[in-house]
Amino acid sequence: MIPSIKELVFFPSWTAGREGYAARIHEVFQKYLADQGLRLTEQRRHIVDFLLHAEQHVMMSDIYQALRSKGIGKVTVFRTLKMLEECRLAERVTSPGGRAKFEIKFERPHHDHLICMECGRIREVQWPDVEKIQEKTCKGLGFTPLWHRHEVFGRCEACQSKRTEKGFQQ
User: Fold this and answer.
1) Residue pLDDT tens, the chain, 170 long
2) d(CA 67, CA 81)
3) Nearest-CA neighbor of 104 among 83, 76, 85, 123?
4) Relative to the CA of 68, which of 46, 106, 145, 161 has its CA 20 to 30 Å away?
5) What are the phi and psi torsion angles at 122 (to 5°)?
6) What is the CB neighbour count within 10 angstroms for residue 115?
7) How far apart are CA 110 and CA 134, in angstroms?
8) Is the pTM of this model over 0.70?
9) Could you write out the three-class secondary structure of the chain?
10) How far is CA 25 from each of CA 39, 107, 125, 146, rounded to the nearest angstrom?
């Protein structure tokens, strides 16, 4: 992870900061787990809190490395991420190497991702014009979309500049 870059930028407007958002996520996850006959353990809470406080999209290994000193194993991280996806609290984003990165997505405004193949930075973007074209196309074809995501792979501005300085072709 690159600690100095904030990748996660789109949050619901109703939240009372991250604390208000975190309380809502915990509440929804706890209800989901109870409906499954499970409980929100301290280990699951730590994993959710890690995701909630992340400034970037994170890999399972990032979570494991950060929390293993608290006695949280890889399997617990894997299963918790799977549950968070199942209850639609978290979503996968593809990293340049094809590995999954995660973000909390619950009630966040729809956004897509620009993914730099060089440095791995993920930038969240919103494209109202693209959304309108999708809606119009789907309606014209009698297609009802359930969900979608766009992930555009390329080079960020900083990596393009570095390549130009080194004399590489774009």
Assistant:
1) 444 567 666 665 555 566 777 888 999 999 999 999 999 999 999 999 999 888 889 999 999 999 999 999 999 999 999 999 999 999 999 888 889 999 988 877 788 889 999 998 888 888 889 989 999 999 999 999 988 888 899 999 989 888 777 766 55
2) 14
3) 85
4) 106
5) -115, 130
6) 21
7) 14
8) yes
9) CCCCCCCCCCCCCCCCHHHHHHHHHHHHHHHHHHHCCCCCCHHHHHHHHHHHHCCCCEEHHHHHHHHHHHCCCHHHHHHHHHHHHHCCCEEEEECCCCCEEEEECCCCCCCEEEEECCCCCEEEECCHHHHHHHHHHHHHCCCCCCCCCCEEEECCHHHHHHHHHCCCCC
10) 14, 9, 23, 22
Q: Which two tokens stand for residue 82?
A: 């799977």
Distance between start and end Cα atoms, the chain: 25
**Residue 4 is encoded by which pair of tokens?**
């100095």
